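Running low. Got one?
___
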Amino acid sequence: MLPSAAIIVPTRGRPHYLDRALASIAPQAAALGVEVIVVDDGPEISTRTVAEAHGARYISDGAGDGLNAARNRGVKASDAELLIFTDDDVEVHAGWLLALLEGAAEQPEQVGVFSGPIHAKIEDHRFRACGREGWPITTTELGPSDADCVYAWGSNMMIRRSAFESVGLFDPLLGGGGDEEEWEERWRESGGRIRYLAAAGVDHIRCGDDSRLSSLCAVARSRGRVARRFDEARSQAPGLVAELRTFVGCLWHGPRHLCAMGPVTAAHSWGRIEATLSRAPLGETPLVEGVNDFLSPGSGTVAGRRAKLLALADRGTDLVELRSRRALQRAAAGSPRRSVLVLTIASDHGGSLLTQQRAELGRSQHTVELRVAAAAGAGKFENLNALIAAADEREYDWIVVLDDDVDLPSGFLDSFLFAAEEAGLEIAQPAHRLHSHAAWPITRRRRGVRSRRTTFVEIGPVTAFAPSAAKALIPFPELRTGWGLDAHWAAIAAQRGWPIGIVDATPVGHTLRPVAADYPREDAIAEAQEFLQGRPYLRRDEIRTVGIQR
């Protein structure tokens, strides 16, 4: 008797692919009495319609957390002994399901993971590959015989429930690269085996615009960034020079072999270089509730050669976005005049740009009231409360907290507030330039994006509050540094349904003083731990972008 099984298909916004996948899966599943579960990570009516048309169970609860989280929801939704995972962009071969089930029945419990051939199938556009560099989508071909293997890829992967019970579910924080690998490494370290079944094959498909070379390169670039981050987390990432050497080799591969994989691998390599330059490594320290789960993954300090390279990248991005920046400035010029209160504390540690800030704010079309206080031995938020108490009683359209070491771009305030209001943000911050000191990777600028809705906005160096948020959050708690306060704000925003986010179109420079340069880091952490005790707050692993406006 064959063991019970369920087929889990995570998907997001690709009903045309899903329809094709289910058309090949559903008949085999029906013949063998296997349930098909579609887990929609970006709920759409069209996806539900396709799933139900093929007799699949549709799940959308908890959507938006990524591929591994979707896989985990599928596992929890079934009590089957075997969990079969595939992607929404495959077509399974005849006999695929039976080969998997029979393979599991024939193998001992120690063999807890199974896979099979994955063949690339690129349609609608010509793609010439020389064979030396594989294909631009995941493939596997280990020959005509069954054999043990190192990895099973998510487009064709079956796992025993007992294996999940042994080593846990997939890591929901991983996605886009390394998502299956990390779990399978845990499984092998526990003594488990992975088996390749030659008769359980699938085709991995790209069609329509997705099969254009430009689209394949864009996906490869994104995967390159994720792959670099995954290597960093495992302390296996090569240095920048090695990454650049690989990039040059990839560029040469295309013309040398007349191979379309040249530009694809070059795009992947470039994504790795971007991640090397612009993002700090993922922290490896486990998160402990109330101790470090609200802290950033690194200091975010940028210096030396890396800072120079990132400054060049910033200038290049400025040139690319010149037209869109001017369009934003024209749109902002026609916006209603706002009443804005700007609060800043003059540091007693040097490195102030207050004179330049005052001049830039003075060029705004809005009515701007700038209030400045000297640090005078008090903490930042203690001083901010004193400034607020001394301000006019009238209501402001925006209250902006500004550190005095921030380099504001030309036309900053008008464009920033226009973009924030356009996105409906209650709490907003401008993105950091790539070469800025920025502790939170999510706050660095993104090319081609005007603004993003996020689950988190930091306490500085520039934070703006619309009226609803200002009434609820100001005056601030009597804190010196305010660490942890942004995590608390994020939780309140989620509870009240406030949109919060980052304006990428007006990136600021923060290069004069690194984060925590004016106070002991240990004191800031201790203050935050005490403040957050008993209060709701957003954990570091809950920080993400939830919407983009271009």
The radius of gyration is 26 Å. The CA atoms of residues 339 and 394 lie 10 Å apart. The chain is about 40% helix and 20% strand. The longest strand covers residues 500-508.
